[in-house]
Amino acid sequence: MNALALKSIDTETGLLSPGRTAGAYLTEIRFEFMRMLRNPALAVPVVLVPLALYLLFAMLMAREAIAKDPALGVFLFSAFSVMAVTMPALFGISASLAMEREMGLMRLKRAQPAPPGTWLVAKITCGVLFCLLSYLPMLGAAIAAGTLPLGAGQIAAMSVALIAGSIPFCALGLMIGALVKGSAAPGYANLIYLPGCYLSGLFFPLPPSMHWQVPLWPQAHINHLAMHAAGVTTKFPLIPMQLAIGALIGFTVLFSAVALWRLARKG
Amino acid sequence: MTTTNRVWTDAIGEPAETLLELRGIRAAYDGIDVLYGVDLAVPRGSVVALLGPNGAGKTTAINLWLGLIEADAGEVTLLGGSPLDIERRRGLGVMMQDVEMYKDLKVRELITLSSSYYTNPLSVEETLRRAGISALANKAYGKLSGGQKRQAQFAVAICGRPRVLFLDEPTVGLDVQARETLWGNVRMLLAEGCSIVLTTHYLEEAEALASRVAVLAKGRVIAAGSVDEMRALVARRQITCESGLAPEYVRQWPGVIEVRRERGRLAIVAADAEAVVRRLLAEDSTLSRLEVREAGLSEAFTELTKEAA
Fold first, then answer.
1. What is the ipTM for the molecules in this complex?
2. Cβ distance A73 to A232 under 8 Å?
3. Is the pTM of this model over 0.95?
4. Measured distance CA(A232)–CA(A235) in Å, rounded
5. Which end is more exposed in chain B, N or C (fewer Cβ atoms within 10 Å of the end residue's Cβ)?
6. b/e string for B159-173 if b means 16 or more Cβ within 10 A?
7. Which residues of A are less than 8 Å from B184 in CB distance?
8. Would strands B265-270 and B237-242 be described as parallel, antiparallel, or unpaired?
């Protein structure tokens, strides 16, 4: 089968050119994204569930209340958007990484000469892209239905805060994916995610006696940062913006460090 | 038995350029030594087969060269430097055992992805052609049979024009034709100057491909050399013949290790084959279909690992 004239295998080693290095990162991102798109069992729920819940609660059940109190509209939009941007990041990355570890792929990737962190950059980039896919339909629906009474600048600022806020959840997904088995990853992700949604006061205001524990949940910081960005700062008690940003960076560093530490030792 | 710390030589007896080396390696998992005092070298343009029973330390040795684990003591060299240097790893290709690739990606895409890590990879088409899997290019990896998956993994391993190729049980699950194709590829890579580290449980595969063999047992290299040198380590030979002599009687002769009757023929394993053949001819005038065969790698392996146990 290989009777073709073949070039000699040369002693090619050494540095990748900047162009090929960039190409390696882009190729990794492209195929990571294609894999996510080709996995509808993951893609469809994470894109549709937050949108469906937003349509149900904000547009059907709370429509009159929003008409009377526009800040409630921003509150609900922010809450369900946090859900939209964090679910794909957390569930998509944790499950896929855990399965890849079980398949031995992380060992292969460590042996291959990929530029440093290509898979990490690809996972986080695709996590953020998926968050966009999940977030944009909700934003479109809110604008079309008039349930998001904000100016374009406020919407843009809020969107940036929400999308950037998905990064700590990408890191959390990496940490869970690095620590547990593929079959267990969604369970562990839920174990952290669902209590966080409720105890962070994402969907309903908490009694003052529970305010002390709100900063423990990453969801709270994204939500409050988005509310700051939207300029809705007086209606609800919010975590100060600097603290929210610092906490999100801290969560990202902590989760990533645990993930990388674990992967470097166990693969 | 050969020394474990040997300098390999090329065909004309000159020391060959060493591309990979383990020197005085000790590696332990959970406090238990998996490799102890191991010295191994892989010269340029050779196929070195690492053989040994399960748990002998073969995979640990490969993992050291791949930079996946670090030795507790000793020195690991890959292409003249540390295997942790990414530039060194650009000179290697790897086909691991027990690794599944992305099942959602097509074979062509898997090769494209891995090719992007190398400075001067083969084109995707050429890689597919070399691996003999052009027909599988647009099939999703998850839809391939077990043997086809191994072929795709081989393609991924060679796409970067490796100077050193690690093949861990490469032909498990392959049909005869696919195995022949892979063997042909290994020989072609060898002719082009690539060095290959092969682990296999198929001793006929090592016999067919390897220019050098290292036998590991209990974390040590118990023998190393060419396949012929390995065979020579085992003095015993196999004698078969049609004879009316009883196996129980022949078993008592000096120089006889083992006797059994197989399909009507006497099968004798002898340490001193010449003496046994002389006595067979003297004692049985009806003796016919006499064959004397040297020990193969398989017998050598069995004897060596039995000694080490």
1. 0.81
2. no
3. no
4. 7
5. C
6. bbbbbbbbbbbbbee
7. 1-2
8. antiparallel
